[in-house]
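Treating backbone geometry as a discrete language has practical consequences that deserve illustration. Part of our work consisted of pairing the sequence of a single chain with a tokenised description of its backbone. What the numbers capture is local backbone geometry rather than side-chain detail. For completeness, the protein is quoted in full, as a sequence line and a line of structure tokens:
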Amino acid sequence: MSSTRQTSDERRAALVEAALVAFARSGLHGTAVSTVTEAVGITQPYAFSLFGTKKGLFLAAVEHCFDRVSETFEKAAAGVPKRKRLKAMGSAYTELLSDRTVLQMQMQCFAACGDDEIRAVVRSRLERLFELIQDLAGVSAEKAREFLAAGMMCNLAATVDLPLLLPGDLAGPDCPSIP
């Protein structure tokens, strides 16, 4: 069996995907870098050469998580009349949250904000997401806040498996159904 050598970009992407899964499950401090590197068959020194530190790898996973949400919103809004985009984005977010990895990584992002550098990245990405929602849906800051608030309630309810907290619609996304 022949194996194809991966480029450094492919190895980096594989590490970020594996990091997303590992950090979502155990958080920044509860995850060993070896858990991530073993999942993709890469040495720890190589991972450190790409990301510098475990926190650097975590931040790459944070960025990737926010990218997935942004891309989900952009795809959902494409070709939809502006007045229907917020609803389309909410529905797409509901589908995204059925992936517990993304859901749990979002929670880990916020939990790790005791670190100034992580907080700065999460704050910046949340601001960009807020602006993206406004731009894509053509809504006011207040409507974008309501949309994000509804999404955060959905995250919380889905994370703790508490259907009682799942609203049908809070001027934003329909919450995911609990499996």
In short: The chain has one domain: 8-165.
